[in-house]
Amino acid sequence: MAKVRIYLRKSLTFVRIISVTPLSLPPAVSTISPFSSPFYVLAKSAGSRCNLSCAYCYYLEKSKLYGQGEAQVMDDAMLERFVRSYIEAQTTPSVLFTWHGGETLMRPLSFYRRAVALQRKYAAGRVIDNCIQTNGTLLTDEWCRFFRDEGWLVGVSIDGPQPIHDHYRRTRSGRPSFVQVMKGIEMLRRHGVEWNALAVVNDLNVGDPLGFYRFFRSIDCHYLQFTPIVERLQPHADGRRLAAVDEAGAGGMLPMSVTPEAWGTFLCTLFDEWVHHDVGQCFVQLFDSTLANWMGQPPGICTLAPTCGHAAALEWNGDVYSCDHFVFPEYRLGNLREQSFVEMMYSERQRAFGQAKRTTLPNRCRQCPWLFACNGECPKNRFLHTPEGEPGLNYLCKGYRQFFSHVAPYMDWMKQELLHQRPPAAIVSLLQRDPHAFD
């Protein structure tokens, strides 16, 4: 039976279904049956409210879309409407709730206790899972006991060693946050709460992939996701500064953004460390998803899938957007007070949004030998023109081409192991015997 592992990332929480050798995979948190066209919703329970003011955050400015006089947090009426409507819209015996921010713990614990009570009220026999993303600074023993008792999976945002993390991830008053995050992680461990790490790769940590990866290994992190900063500057009348994919980005790149070349070197260097030491011990989201694409299986991560549009963002007031990275007025699907999730998520507009990931690929991508592994990556990053003048080229293309070319022989080998029902973690012992086996 297929096993499901829930992973967290800032732009999307996703469920991956894998039916290969269990020894090669992380432990399951639930089992579900297949379905043809699932959708998920990232609920912004605290809107863009946050106790940190990370210099690169793409979400803090979303408060400018709404009146400044409002609290901009999900109230009890919207919470109940969301829980009931979301469960009723699902077609499977298992339902995943994903809580994002801003900072989710800016809402009191009583809010989430009420969410759990409502889930039980409307479950109608379904199995309910919850996962939540937090910066970790507000965790307490009481929070951790709740997560443990209710079986919630917690994603913690941390960017690496203290000097790197504290450079951009500071409080609104400018104080560093690393020490508080590590205290939060220790509390999660002490209470037996399952947690994942989410790191943002920026212009600083991208230059030290080994230090970055070894830090997470040193804190006994077994599930790691990282996402690169790729943001452009575009002033808006309401004060927002970041560009949507179809805007000019007249102000250039956000200074914290990675370059394609640095991204490629980062991935290759980190992969070499992982494949020589940690396959089967540390599960790196991007590498796991790449292997899935090599196997011809769904990668479980929207950025590497052929199409997208199955994970919307729900704002505190009921506004629904096509994707968490597309919370711009032109991508607003409607409001939950006026339309159902089914009407919005299965609308022609949202279907077109998801299919555009495939249909708008330039010829350069369609002819690329790595198309099966990349699928054009995230549409939000596809704002360049090809050398032939076609729009839609991914900003990170050069880096991904370097990465896929580098990992190909390793992926080929692990694919064969899986096809023969053997755990791909055996690659570690192979490389220990012959470090140059794939040179």
Tell me about this structure:
The protein has 439 residues and is α/β, with parallel strands linked by helices. It has 14 helices and 14 strands. The protein has helices at residues 76-89, 109-122, 141-150, 162-168, 178-190, 209-218, 260-277, 285-295, 341-345, 348-359, 363-366, 371-374, 397-419, 426-433; strands at residues 3-7, 14-18, 40-44, 94-100, 127-134, 153-157, 195-201, 223-228, 283-284, 311-314, 319-321, 332-335, 384-385, 391-393. A 10-stranded mixed beta sheet has the order 9-8-7-6-5-4-3-10-11-12. A hairpin with a 6-residue loop joins strand 1 and strand 2 (14-18). Helix 1 (76-89) packs parallel to helix 2 (109-122). The protein is globular, with a radius of gyration of 21 Å. The protein starts with a strand and ends in a 6-residue tail after the last helix. Mean pLDDT is 91; it is low at 1-36.
Please provide a brief summary of the model.
The protein is α/β, with parallel strands linked by helices and 439 residues long. 35% of the residues lie in helices and 15% in strands. The model is unreliable at 1-36 (pLDDT under 50).
